[in-house]
Design a protein that fits this description.
Elements (H helix, E strand, L loop, with lengths): L2 H6 L8 E11 L2 E5 L7 E5 L8 H9 L7 E17 L5 E17 L2 H4 L2 H10 L10 E3 L4 E3 L2 E6 L13 E5 L5 E5 L6 E3 L5 E8 L5 E8 L9 E4 L5
Parallel strand pairs: 3-5, 6-13, 7-13, 8-14
Antiparallel strand pairs: 1-2, 1-4, 2-3, 4-5, 8-11, 9-10, 9-12, 12-13
């Protein structure tokens, strides 16, 4: 049975044992079962404890992917279906699966450039244990920067490239929580060739300017154009 079928008549199956093949998503204050055939339907699930069959496979699939964003985990979810109440954080869904088993757990690649959001970038920043240098005011970007390779120019509010005197730098964190500080000199673009495909939190800083933060997605399928320009607002 699919989640979409269940959601057509959820009350019919309330209290019954069900088996669903779907994506199992775990994140900050949410855990959900998702079927992309009906993407507007997301159902909360509950694990009574970590001794249920298949839990270790699922946990490994989540944890073995940097920040749980580069892949999605799919499984056969077997458990008791309940509906007609509020379940999860902030009444996430009106139905829930009380899971008794996770079977056939698989981890598949996610198309990052389409799925990453500002919220995902915020999660990435939280996972970086070494703090970035930031300006007096920080400006989080509304969407990730999707680039073929890391090649950016830091500019002022007039879109003019910042010089070495401003100590302009791009700070980038990798999956091992290592922060790379890439200094911009004489308006030349900041480059880091050979960066593996993936999502990387960053902060751009310069003396006398506010900082800009977000995440950069390296996707080899993107056509390489001119260096991407990141504009830093004037500081106070």
């Amino acid at each position: 049975m699919t989640l979409c079928q269940l959601m057509k008549e959820p009350a019919t199956y309330s209290g019954k044992l069900v088996s669903i093949r779907a994506e199992v998503s775990v994140g900050f204050e949410h855990q959900a079962i998702i079927d992309h055939s009906c993407p507007d339907q997301r159902v909360w699930f509950e694990l009574p404890d970590d001794s249920i069959h298949g839990f270790n496979d699922a946990e490994g699939a989540w944890k073995n992917n940097p920040w749980n964003l580069k892949r999605k985990v799919e499984a056969n979810i077997i458990g008791r279906w309940r509906t007609g109440d509020c379940f999860g954080h902030d009444c996430f869904s009106k139905s829930v699966v009380l899971v008794s088993q996770l079977a056939n757990v698989t981890s598949v690649l996610r198309r990052q450039s389409k799925h990453l959001t500002r919220y995902d970038c915020t999660l990435l920043h939280r996972e970086v244990r070494t703090s970035f240098e930031r300006g007096h005011i920080d400006n989080p970007l509304d969407a990730p920067l999707v680039l073929q390779t890391l090649n950016v120019v830091l500019t002022d509010h007039t879109n003019f490239p910042l010089s070495a005197k401003s100590r302009a730098a791009l700070q980038l964190a990798d999956a091992h929580n290592k922060i790379h500080r890439l200094n911009q000199s004489n308006g030349r673009s900041v480059r880091l060739d050979g960066l593996p495909p993936g999502a990387y939190p960053f902060t751009a800083v310069a003396q006398g300017f506010q900082s800009v933060s977000g995440c950069i997605v390296i996707d080899p399928r993107i056509k390489a154009l001119t260096p991407f320009r990141i504009q830093l607002p004037l500081g106070l």
